[in-house]
Design brief:
The protein contains no helices and eleven strands. Strands 2, 4, 5, 6, 9, 10 and 11 form a seven-stranded mixed sheet that branches. Strands 1-3-8-7 form a four-stranded antiparallel sheet, with no helix packed on it. By secondary structure, it is mainly β. The radius of gyration is 15 Å and the shape is elongated.
């Protein structure tokens, strides 16, 4: 089973909007942070947005003012609201979570990735 289930990708025109969602599967762990990365063909994967357990958000420079990341703790879901989309936003978007598993020995942090959802911005 997939620990992170992404949805919401698709085709949208420039200037349009799209919302991505990522649901966290059940497990005995806490979430340090969740967010979104993206990678276009031939380009490096880059941070889009993240939200820490404190609620503090971080955005990539190219999406500031256009994208908003939020979290619904009751549904264990993180969202990415994308507005004023541009062709350069076209990429595979990957949900990401940094989780913490605590044991009697201490704790260990893990990076968990979704399989990605494709966002295409084109006229």
């Amino acid at each position: 089973q997939e620990p992170l289930v992404e949805s919401g990708g698709g085709l949208v025109q420039p200037g349009g909007s799209l919302t991505l969602s990522c649901a966290v599967a059940g497990g005995v762990f806490s979430i340090n942070a969740m967010g979104w990365y993206r990678q276009a063909p031939g380009k490096q994967r880059e941070l889009v947005a993240s939200i820490a357990k404190t609620g503090i958000t971080t955005y990539g420079e190219s999406v500031k003012g256009r994208f908003t990341v939020s979290r619904d703790d009751a549904r264990s879901t993180v969202y990415l609201q994308m507005n004023i989309l541009k062709p350069e936003d076209t990429a595979n978007y990957y949900c990401h979570a940094n989780i913490r598993v605590t044991t009697i020995e201490g704790y260990t942090d893990f990076e968990v990735w979704g399989q990605g959802t494709l966002v295409t911005v084109s006229p």
